[in-house]
Each structure stands twice: as C-alpha cells, then as structure tokens.
Input
Amino acid sequence: MKKPSLPDIFYNVCNQHQKARPIMQKPYICGNHVVSTDMSMIIIADKNKYDTSGLEESADSLSENTEKIINRIKQTECIKPWQKIDIDDDEIVSFMDAKVTHGECYECDGNGYVYLSTSFNEYEIECLSCDGTGDHPTIPIWGHVCVDQVRVNPCYIFLINNADSYNTIDNQLFFRIGEISGTVLGMR
Ligand SMILES: [Zn+2]
Output
C-alpha cells in the first residue's frame, strides 16, 4: 500500500535557504521519526506513516540534540484544546516569502568573505556569520501572539492553527496536529 506523502507543513517549517545549516533545509530522518526544523520550531511524526523516500538520515551534529527534543515533545502532554487564532493574510504571505527567498549576510554583504587588514597585509577570510554562503535568511516578525504566557511569532501560529491540542511549558508551546507533534520557542 502506498503511504501518504509528507504533509506540506514539514516543508513550510524548514528553510531551504539556510545553506549554512543543512539540517534546516529539508525534512530529515532521526531514528523512527521524520523531523523538520528552522531552529525556532520543530515538528516530528512517525516516519513509517509517510512516504519518506528521498529523505536522508541526518549526520549533522545537531541531530544528537534532535533526539533529546523528540523525547521532550513526546513526553509533553498536550491537554488543552487549541482555539484557532486570527492571523492577518499579509503576515502569512510575507512569512512564506521569507522562507523561499533569502537576504544577504550583514557581515560580509553577501560575499561570503570578509577582509582583514593589518599594517603588513590584507587577508581574505571566510565569513563566520554565514559560513561563507553570503546568505542571511530571515523570518519577519510583526509583534507576537500570546498563547497563555508564551509569546509566539504569528508566522508559527499560522502553521499550527489547525492544531488539536497544546500545552505551554518553560516559554515553549507544544502542540499536536493529528499524527504530527512539535514545539515552538517563545520570544524573549
Ligand atoms: Zn557572511
């Protein structure tokens, strides 16, 4: 039997322009889960429930952390029913645009290199801010939405607005959307 393809939310959460961070560019496999993250938000689902062909097991060092986060998500009960929140369409459009376009790194003006001069020499060195990619993908922020005590970028509320249930712990919003579960970090 053919498995359903991975829901769109997995592609909307990740950010294909994060060249410095391969783990954020597309969904990946970690143990029994398929995972997608942009570092502010992470979602997981049982990898056996979906067609995950073409996705890779992540070798990124961040995947060690992923396992801890997966456990935390699974252990956190989402007992409160989610109530849909009104989000302005303009905000959503800008958010999705930011996920598919990319800005220039402030540090190197998009060159990927920075120059360092001493009285003897001039050095060209790889920009550490963007790992030499020149990219600085940004997600726009327009104020925030409060979910209990957690302040969340409306972009993320848009992605989880059909959630079934949620909970908030330690400035993190945990949620369940059918087979998918995840968490969003609150703004400081
Ligand atoms: Zn740079």
User: Anything to note?
Assistant: The chain has a mean pLDDT of 88. The CA atoms of residues 164 and 178 lie 7 Å apart.
